[in-house]
Amino acid sequence: MKSLYPFLILFSLPAVFESCSSGKAAMKKGDYYEATLNAIHRLRENPNHKRAMDVLTQAYPLTIEFIDTSIKNGIESNDSKKWRNAVAGYQKINFINDQISTCPGAKKVIPNLQLRLKELADAKVNAADEAYNEGITEMMKNNREDYKQAYYDFKDANSFQQGYKESIEMQNQAEYKATLRVAFEEINNSRYNYGTFQPVVNSLQRLFLSFKPIAQKDTVPPQQYLRIIFNGYQETRPYVSTRTETQTRQIVVGQVKGADGKMVDQTQAVSVNVTYFHKTITGSTEAGVTITDAGSNAQLQNVFVNGTYNWEYDWATYSGDSRALSGNASSWVQRRETFPNPQDVYNQTLRTLQNNLHQQLKSFYSQY
């Protein structure tokens, strides 16, 4: 073990040096916040780390001063998010203080923490009012994108001050107005039972986007109609391609005594003719997708989505000396011609259609 010790030290030196230097590097770049966090992290591992203690001593007061100044300048500006930025700043200060208070090595370096608890509480009151008023402004613009922004503004207001004014009610109203409602129907235009595309459509549900079956009467009229028509399934006849090759190899058939009296291998060339068979059966299916604007009756999309699946199988036969067989031929000659389960081919083809349908609809509704 003693002989390994110097190598272990050398192996660990780069990691130690990187950890030690990262704090100083952040200091040189003026990133006092990152330098402070790096120093605290290092002191958790080694409470007496001299370089980390030096970095923390310098970086902590500079971090507090920098954030306080940024907050002060922001509040005195016309920035529409100045109080929300102030909240974020005070939260960063308090986060650093929490990290120090739970790290004995760091606490020893910074015994007197500069807390901003009252400042944070006061900033949250102003931030709630700021976010609420911005939400009202967005609501008055009367379009879907601004309703979406208003939703987040009211959500922020409520997070800063629970139940601030009518923030919860306004958030619900903004979500209601921002939500695109789509009435969905599916039609089977074939003799095949494909189940339902409802899971595919349900997977698209998200905030501000709602899908409901057209037969399910909603209290709110839809803005769009989505129709999916299953047009059927086809399966090709089995197609078999063939190719033939000759394989030759030298094999040992015995031993004979050589001129020098030593035994040497006696080889013989053997060959085999191999015929390879490759069978393919292709299943294909199709669905038509039409998306219509409920107000203008204009078609927003009219496409066909396909699903295909190829079932493939390989086997081989041979004539000649089987000892010459090599590669895939060795195992394929053990196989016999077979056929797939028709239901399995259909199911795999349908899964491909469902996946492609999901991607098509996801792409279209990504703009909403």
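The above is record 1. Record 2 follows with the same two-line structure.
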Amino acid sequence: MSERQRILTGDTPTGNLHIGHWVGSVKRRVQLQEKHECYFLIANLHAYTTRADSPMDVHRDCIEVARDALAMGVDPEKAAIFLQSEVPALSELTYLFAMLLPFNRVMRNPTLKDELKIKGLADNYSFGFPLYTVGQTADILAFRAHSVPVGEDQVPHLELTREVARRFNKMYCGVPDKAPDEEHESLGGVFPIPVADVGKVGRLVGTDGQNKMSKSLGNTIHVIDTAKKVKKKIGKIYTGQDSRQPNDPGIVDPEKNPLFQYLDVFVEDEATKVDIRDRYERGDNIGDGEVKMLVADAINELLEPMRERRLQYEDDAVVLEVLRSGTARAIASTEETMQMVKDVAGTGFFKRTLTLA
């Protein structure tokens, strides 16, 4: 086992990655891969919770998500990008962990409730929809991950994972009931108790100016968007201030204008940000149009090297080889965990070796 801490995070393949993914998680992945043992999951089984009737679309999106991650700077020599459906331990642990969680506890997950509401599922959802939250705990714990880069909306999922890890370690490994989280491994627990690594921007507002940036809401700026398209999307952001003329008197609060989150996140020069805020608050010959131009230029400056890097992975065969290599590494890591789990949980009878053909 590597002496470096393990990191696990990932994405459900529902389309191309966008700048919300970058600021919420992927930027942190690129940083972490330099010093940690990183595994980045493409959760294609989780995609079936709402897209079971579109298997080929999910298949295609797996390749696109991997391509975008590579474009954003994930290095396949430093981190393993892998496919959830090709790693048997993840499904096996999901089944076992489902026995350790009361159904009511799973359904109290606020992120799950929000997703049911946003997706308009009400009571019309499959049994697999709440089960995927248990699957997320398996995704993380199968790698005995110490840290998980997530957006703030995913923190409740991680808390569920922490509960499962504690319960398993106490039930099957004899870890004392009141043992501190950081001592579980040293006391014989199979699983470390992972912590959330929330990005600097936990929730990036979308181009609708109201909701979190989300593919399902169509309010995104994607890695694959051209410079022209980025400017067009930024230009359409509803700010609530569009009717204000540049020289309107009175103080205006930039915190109520979603453009200023984009300004803070994507414009690097601090002096420029301070000057724009000051002028905007005083109504000093500045309007939303000027801020939008500045933001669009900054986003395009960020995306340009990603667009260029993406050209290296235009061939699906190249992307699939990256996924194959990463999946083989993921299988090796999770099989080690499964053997530990089976030894203490009493489910192990025979040794097995899994390889990709």
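The longest helix spans residues 316-345.
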